[in-house]
Amino acid sequence: MPVVNVNQQKRVKYDLKKQERALLVRRILANKLMVTGGVIVIFLLLLTIFGPKLTPYDPYEMVVKERLQSPTASHLLGTDNFGRDLLTRIIYGAKVSMWVGFASAFLSSIIGLAIGLAASYYRYLDNIFMRICDGLLAFPAILFAIALMAVLGAKTENVILALTIVFSPEIARIVRSRALVVREETYIEAIRSQGASAMRIIWRHIAPNTISPLLVKATFVFSEAVIVEATLSFLGAGVPAPDPSWGNILSDGKAVIYTAWWMTVFPGAFIILSVLGLNLFGDGLRDLIDPRSSTK
What we know:
Structural class: mainly alpha
CATH architecture: Orthogonal Bundle
Number of strands: 0
CATH superfamily: MetI-like
CATH class: Mainly Alpha
Largest sheet: none
CATH topology: MetI-like fold
């Protein structure tokens, strides 16, 4: 009889988990913002993974006699001012932009999480960390990034480092605000009274409750990083030429905007598409995690 009861309990737990998964899938599919944004983001990710293998052109190969050709069957998006296939350059540029955006969002999330948790739990660190964050947030993101790149030098790795420094304070403040609420919960006091160490309380009990707002903010940081990276590359302070980036492709196209419109329209469209997809996904994820935040 006890064996039967144990099996029944396992079956009930399995059924409950199955129902929860089915409910989550239905909620995701009913979330139009998240689905639309997710489709766009998946398309861009697939483009960065498989696009370079599908294009027959080299993004660095210059064919001067084919420079500034309008879109044709052989060059679907035309060529740039050095005769390079624009579609190939945009595909490789997507790889750079997605990597910079993801790496910046990931690293700033890790650093912001650590700073926010430490500031929320240790009051003597709160004033120090938050005043530093306030000082960094006083500078506009793009201007701050330009200043950092002027010091670090134009390099892809330095772009990631600069954007990590720029966006970490935003995430730190969000994590701190959520962690301050969790820290005052009764169960945290009970765990502390049982002699649990500070590190165990922070990482085992407080940190998991800050993941939801952290993930939502990370998606917006991803999109902001794509824009800032494109801006830096456009100004010549980001990804150095001849490496392809949406920003430096736009920069090349500004001189021939009236005669070769495709050099600005197509990379600009990809920037808009990526930012739109990430923002829609972030809005949908926020509504999924906290239905009260939905404007519907």
